[in-house]
UniProtKB/TrEMBL annotation:
Gene3D superfamilies: Leucine-rich Repeat Variant. Belongs to the CpcE/RpcE/PecE family. Keywords: Antenna complex, Lyase, Phycobilisome, Repeat. Catalyzes the hydroxylation of the N(6)-(4-aminobutyl)-L-lysine intermediate produced by deoxyhypusine synthase/DHPS on a critical lysine of the eukaryotic translation initiation factor 5A/eIF-5A. This is the second step of the post-translational modification of that lysine into an unusual amino acid residue named hypusine. Hypusination is unique to mature eIF-5A factor and is essential for its function. PROSITE patterns: HEAT_REPEAT (PS50077). This is PBS lyase. One of its GO terms (molecular function) is oxidoreductase activity. GO terms for cellular component: phycobilisome. InterPro entries: ARM-like (IPR011989), ARM-type_fold (IPR016024), Armadillo (IPR000225), HEAT (IPR000357), HEAT_type_2 (IPR021133), PBS_lyase_HEAT (IPR004155).
Amino acid sequence: MLRSPDVSDRLVAVKSLQHLGEDTAVEALITALEDENTTVQKIAVSALWEIANPAAVPALLKCLASPDAEIRTEALSALGELVTPDHLLLLLDALHQKDINVNLNVLILLRKIHDVQSLPAILSFLESENSQLREAAVTTVRYLNQVEICPPVLSLMKDADNNVRRAATLTLGHLADKEAVELLTQALTLDADWQVRRNAAKSLAIHADNQAIPALKFALKDENWQVRKFAIQVLQKTPDANLLPTLIEALTDEYSDVRKEAAIALGNLGNANAVNALKQALDDPDRDVSIYAQRAIDKIQQQK
């Protein structure tokens, strides 16, 4: 029936094979991936995903080049569960194809394998003319094991594309390049994109380096509340007595998430001069803020 000239016959056949869900149907379903009808192809991809036989991986990889976006998405989801480290060479070979959809999706799949052997192939995309490929590649670097130093990532902090800089900023949080903290503090205070600034704060929280404190103080005045929130989270890990007045001021921030983080930071700072402000925060309209304010008070008093 899968070879019938009537598409309705082929649809019945591929649907029936999907319901059977048997490994013996894999070969026939792989054949159905090349059907001229996209609906037949989509059902075949879904069926192979459900059967979960690794033998379908090479055929599903070919689907990543499909002109149909739904087929590519379904194939990527299926491969996300089926690929293993044993498929590394197969994935790296697919990266040589001059097809942006294949390249993008394979870069995503390499994040599951985490193998540092894929780094040279990934780095070649950091200089791609396509911003989507640069973003995908720099994100994938973040998922690789044993990668601590990666100078090519640093240059993307000045990329013209906002999405690329956002991804590069998060990746720098996992790298130990000596310029990483300095670049992150520059992004936190100077980048025009608030999501880059927010991601810089997130990455600085991982580094927890006192070198960033001046930039964090500046970021507490940022126009975007998420930047202020994550900047305070960094200060929770790197308490600085000089920032006591600024953190107390943050207890009255317009956004409750910022006020809550400020209460936590003040508790970690352990300065008794913050207690009066924290007591006022006990009446905060947001329940979480008042809870964390009380915890901060208790923490400070226990240190006496």
